[in-house]
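To: structure desk
From: M.T.
Subject: fold request, one chain
Message: Could you run this one when you get a chance? Sequence is below, nothing fancy, just the single chain.
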Amino acid sequence: MNKFFLSLCVALALALGSSAFAQQKIGFVNSTKIFQEIPEAKEAQRKLEAAAKPIQDEIEKREKVIQDKLDEYKKKEAVMNDAAKRTAQQEIYDLDQQLREYKLDKLGNDGELAKQQEKILNPVKEKILKAIERVAKDLKYSFVFDQTDNVRVLLYGEPASDLTFKVIDRLKTGK
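Reply: Done. Structure tokens follow.
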């Protein structure tokens, strides 16, 4: 989608080539840097880490139980009859399945942590987007792209068109 949008903008620029389009101002921001700089984002990250800690602790606890059962089974396997082996193997399998279900329930795309992340981060994201919009309107930019280390929608940007620090200032001053 981002590549499509960028291609569309480039095609539009080439097709129009008019002075009206040439007068359009285009800027960019680094949303990752903005997110790292504002206090609300740091607090949101702290809340997410606090929410994830008990889940991670429970996963580690369950993994240890499974490993202990597996180690115990391996020690006793030679002296166990077939029925006892099947019972022990089934118990280990069931514990592993329960762990997988727990991880999916807590860490999956629709899991508890994803829902908490959305609930905690959405207000911060909205605030950032509104600040970007205000800076763009104040400085009369028609388009603002995002360029982070991981996602490069913008292949080149003149440093003078980088609005990142203007947005950070806007967010920090609360205007």
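Reply (cont.): Residues 47-115 form one domain. Let me know if you need anything else for the meeting.
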